[in-house]
Each structure stands twice: as structure tokens, then as C-alpha cells.
Design goal:
Order of helices and strands: HEEHEEHEEEEEEEEEEEEEEEEHHH
Number of helices: 6
Largest sheet: 9 strands, mixed
Protein name: Fe-S cluster assembly protein SufD
Family: Belongs to the iron-sulfur cluster assembly SufBD family.
Number of domains: 1
Shape: globular
Oligomer: single chain
Pfam family, one: SUFBD_core
Organism: Kribbella jiaozuonensis
Strand order of the largest sheet: 3-6-8-10-12-14-16-18-20
Length: 400
């Protein structure tokens, strides 16, 4: 059964983007990929993959031209880890899946590579810092984990410019790699990124995307399997404030037997026109017997004027699987939780902050680097304090 046939078999039908414009649903695997920028038209916002994104503000990152700056990249890590600059085409894990990724691929110049030796078990995390200096620029990172190695790599994106980035990840056979990508640019920064990962035989990938800053941040994470027994855990945390757009798009391509994937993304939104978008695509191909997969997205709306869009998608081409499912939920505070805390003498604002912190804890706690975890908790606390100020201002206006 083809991908298109599967869409029909599972009850999906053609849908419309407006009067007179019926568009058939397109299987995720059928969308174009290319290293050539010319193969992608400049997005208008009417395309399925761009309809949630404020494309009018992204024109600079769609231009097929070199950047006006080179982002600053530096790294540190335990002895034995190799840091080097290599040709961009020295490793090709996944092709660009949209115009911005193709532009970044062609104009980032050389790639910065992080290589974890075979059978190395790192006791300290590797840190990679990517700083956008205030203009338009591109970056290209490569992370290779040798077979039977174990490591944590933290990528910290910061700055105030417009950044287009590509991150390529290879998890060797039997390896266990945790990659934490933190997006915490200035309030007016823009970041469009594509992460491509290939998981080896009996290997484990833990990918954590944390977005806490930036005017517009859109991260696409794509995972495929190079052999049976692979396991991918994809986690995400985001907190969009007034005027911010935080978007996460995932594609897990199950093409090998007996592989697993688990996707859990959680977001909070506060302030007028705070916006989040989460798109989760999972494809189980006909040959991928024994697949076990689940994806979940939860959103917590803290104030009026905020909006969360959540779209889980599952395509199944074989019935010989262990399990497959998806779910999403968007809502406000649980009144029972607030009542429970307030009944024990905790003020309302403090109770709300405890609920939100607990909401994120199960993901942030898996990062595995105490100083990073503490920093993220501090940033979330600062955001919650600003949310409390917004709520008080709103109450004051209503009371006038």
C-alpha cells in the first residue's frame, strides 16, 4: 500500500485551504527535499508546511545569498573529543526539506564538527555555543557519536540576529547520545533550523529542543534509522511570550525493523499574540515491522490572547507493529491543582508558578547536566514572574 493509499485507508480525505482551492493531503514522505535552493519556491504562507508560520518576516532567510555575518561558534569538552572544521558536504545525513534549510546549507560555508570517539563514555558534557551577532548569518554543525560511545552534547544558540542553521547527527551502532539544543536568542532574534539524525543499529538518541527566547523560532527535527533496534526519544520545551512565535516540526521515519520512538513536547504561552506551533509526523513504512511509537504534545495557555496549534500525524503502511499512537491537548490551569495548593496556604501566584514548573519538570529533568537544568529553571521563573505582572495589569484594567 502506498503512502497516498494509506491516507485514504485511515480516513483522511482532501481538505481545503479556502474557497475553490481543494488540496489533497500529501504524505510526509512525498514532500520535496533538495540541496538546490531553486527547487523550493519562496514561501507565501499558503503552503501546507508554511501555513502557520509568519513568512513575511522571514524574507532575509529565504534569499539565495550569502549572509552579512558569520555566527561565532566555539566549543569545549572532555579530552578525546575532536573538534574540527570540515567541508559542508563531507557528511549528508538528510537533505534540506524547505527553502530556508537549503539556503543555510549553501551559504553556511564549512561545517563545525564534533566527533565522539568509538567506545568513549564521557563523564562531562560537550558544549557548543552558536552566537548570532546581530545580522543575517548561517551555521552548520555535525555531531558524530562513535559506535558504543556515550555522550551528552549541549548546543546553545544565542544572540540578536537572523540565523539559518543545519545540525546533522550520527549515532553509531550501539551508541547512546543525548543532544540538547537550546534556543534562547534575544527577543527580536529569528532562528530557522533543521536537525537531521540517523540512529544506528541498537543505538539510542535523546534529542531535547528547548526554546525560551527569540521573536520567531522554527526548528524542524527529522529522525531515521540505519538498522534494527534503534531507539529515539524526542523531547521539547518551549515558552512563548507576547509577540513571540515558537514552532517545532518533527518527522520520525521508521524504515527499519524493531525500532522505537517516543515524542513528548510541552509548551506554555503567555501574553498577547504569543504563538506556538507543534507538528508531529510519524511514518511507519511497510518494511518497518515491530515498530513501537507514540507522540504527545501538551500546551498550557496562561493568559488571554495566546494561541497554540498542535497537529499530530501518523502514517502506517504495515499492521505488523508493536504499537502506535498520538495525542495532543491544550488548556488552561487545572483549577483543582490550584485549589489544592492554595488550601495549604500557598498564594495564588506562587501556586501557579509551581504548577507550571511541575508541568516542565519531567522533560527538563532528563537533560542530565545540573548547571543547564538550573539555568533553564531560572529562565522559566523569570518568564512566570512577567506572566504574573501581566495578570495583575489585566485585573487592574478590568477593575477600572
Amino acid at each position: 500500500m502506498s503512502s497516498s493509499d494509506t491516507l485514504v485507508a485511515t480516513g483522511n480525505k482532501a481538505h481545503s485551504h479556502g474557497p475553490g482551492s481543494p488540496v489533497p493531503l500529501q504524505a510526509r514522505s512525498e514532500r520535496p527535499t533538495s540541496y538546490d535552493v531553486a527547487d523550493f519556491a519562496v514561501p507565501t504562507g499558503r503552503e501546507e508546511e508554511w501555513r502557520f508560520t509568519p513568512v513575511k518576516q522571514l524574507k532575509a532567510l529565504f534569499e539565495d545569498a550569502a549572509g552579512t555575518e558569520t555566527p561565532k561558534v566555539d566549543a569545549s569538552g572532555p579530552e578525546g573529543v575532536v573538534f574540527e572544521t570540515v567541508a559542508a558536504d563531507s557528511l549528508k545525513v538528510g537533505k534540506p526539506q524547505d527553502r530556508s534549510a537549503a539556503v543555510a546549507w549553501n551559504h553556511a560555508g564549512d561545517a563545525f564538527a564534533v566527533r565522539i570517539p568509538v567506545e568513549a563514555e564521557l563523564t562531562e558534557a560537550v558544549h557548543v555555543n552558536v552566537a548570532s551577532l546581530g545580522a543575517r548569518g548561517f551555521s552548520h554543525l555535525i555531531i558524530e557519536s562513535g559506535r558504543h560511545s556515550k555522550a551528552i552534547v549541549i548546543i546553545d544558540h544565542s544572540g540578536s540576529g537572523e540565523l539559518g542553521s543545519n545540525v546533522e547527527i550520527v549515532v553509531g551502532d550501539g551508541a547512546d547520545l543525548r543532544v540538547v539544543s537550546i534556543q534562547q536568542g534575544d527577543h527580536e532574534s529569528i532562528h530557522l533550523g533543521q536537525h537531521d539524525a540517523v540512529v544506528g543499529r541498537d543505538a539510542k538518541l535523546h534529542h531535547v529542543a528547548v526554546t525560551l527566547g527569540g521573536k520567531i523560532v522554527r526548528i524542524g527535527t527529522n529522525v531515521r534509522y540505519a538498522g534494527p533496534g534503534g531507539d529515539a526519544e524526542l523531547l521539547g520545551v518551549y515558552f512563548a511570550e507576547s509577540g513571540q512565535h515558537h514552532e517545532n516540526r518533527l518527522f520520525v521515519d521508521h524504515e527499519a525493523t524493531n525500532c522505537k520512538s517516543n515524542v513528548l513536547y510541552k509548551g506554555a504561552l503567555a501574553g498577547d499574540k504569543a504563538r506556538s506551533v507543534w507538528i508531529g509526523d510519524v511514518l511507519i513504512r511497510a518494511a518497518a515491522e515491530g515498530t513501537d511509537t507514540f507522540e504527545l504534545n501538551r500546551n498550557l495557555v496562561l493568559t488571554d490572547g495566546a494561541r497554540a496549534d498542535s497537529v499530530p500525524n501518523l502514517e502506517i503502511e504495515t499492521g505488523e507493529i508493536e504499537g502506535a499512537g498520538h495525542a495532543s491537548a491544550t488548556g488552561r490551569f487545572d483549577d483543582e491543582q490550584l485549589f489544592y495548593l492554595q488550601a495549604r496556604g500557598i498564594p495564588e501566584d506562587a501556586a501557579r508558578r509551581l504548577v507550571v514548573s511541575g508541568f516542565f519538570n519531567d522533560i527538563i529533568g532528563k537533560i542530565g547536566v545540573p548547571e543547564v537544568t538550573e539555568h533553564l529553571h531560572e529562565v522559566i521563573e523569570e518568564k512566570l514572574a512577567r506572566t504574573a505582572e501581566l495578570s495583575e495589569s489585566a485585573k487592574a484594567v478590568v477593575g477600572q
